[in-house]
Amino acid sequence: EPEVTQTPSHQVTQMGQEVILRCVPISNHLYFYWYRQILGQKVEFLVSFYNNEISEKSEIFDDQFSVERPDGSNFTLKIRSTKLEDSAMYFCASTATSGAVEQYFGPGTRLTVT
Amino acid sequence: GNSVTQMEGPVTLSEEAFLTINCTYTATGYPSLFWYVQYPGEGLQLLLKATKADDKGSNKGFEATYRKETTSFHLEKGSVQVSDSAVYFCALSGRGSTLGRLYFGRGTQLTVWP
Q: Measured between alpha carbons, how far is A3 from A25 in angstroms, rounded to an integer?
């Protein structure tokens, strides 16, 4: 069964460093999402992406964040200068169509900023 | 705005016990409602969904009914198994400009003992 994959599973970085989290969505999917979950808190939407551009972003997704689909398979989330409060689990998701349908999630990348 | 409030965990049950995890929501318009489950080390998986009022979603013995009058979507299972141990997330997908974006609750950790 097709699945969303994410790498790395765990990333440790120092404050101020840039990180890139990688996702490979399901191959025929067109809509891509990033969510994050700070330990003990809700899963929060960051951004949605379609047709090579951002469809929607939350207030969390500030200038420190960017997303890219550099080729036909990868979907990346970059944090330019990490802060301690960026420590969280980051989930990538994809879906074939827009709307209130199932999103397929990856296993997540745990980002620890020290 | 859209939000989901989910029963705080953790929930610990013996095998074959009855499970209820409460979920209420606020939303503009008519959202779709979802329960996602996360097993250890894995991504979020859709457990069940309901797209309109009075719909009942069901899967693997779990059920939830979309109650517009009480703005609720409580998850139930008549007889839990050890293999049901996981984190359960209630979520909604709004309409209009936030099409596709998921709003999650905090998640409820369920542990089932043999």
A: 7
CA distances to A51, A95, B26, B70 from A28, in Å: 13, 9, 33, 38
B43/A35 CB distance under 8 A: no
> Cβ(A96)–Cβ(A28) under 8 Å?
yes
Cβ neighbours of A21 in B, within 8 Å? none
Measured from the Cβ of residue B87, the count of other Cβ atoms closer than 10 Å reads 17
SS3 state of residue B82: helix
C-beta separation of A69 from A52 below 8 A: yes
Per residue in A40-57, pLDDT tens?
888 999 999 998 999 999
Question: Choosing among A32, A56, A102, A109, which should be mutated to test the B contact, i.e. which has the most B CBs within 10 A?
Answer: A102
The residue of chain B with its CA nearest to that of A36 is B104
Mean pLDDT, residues B17-26 taken together: 97
In whole angstroms, give the CA distance from residue A87 to residue A105. 19
Distance (Å, rounded) from C-alpha A4 to C-alpha A58? 22
**Mean pLDDT in chain A?**
92
The maximal CA–CA distance of chain B, rounded, in angstroms, is 46
Tell me, rounded to whole angstroms, the distance of Cα B84 from its chain centroid: 13
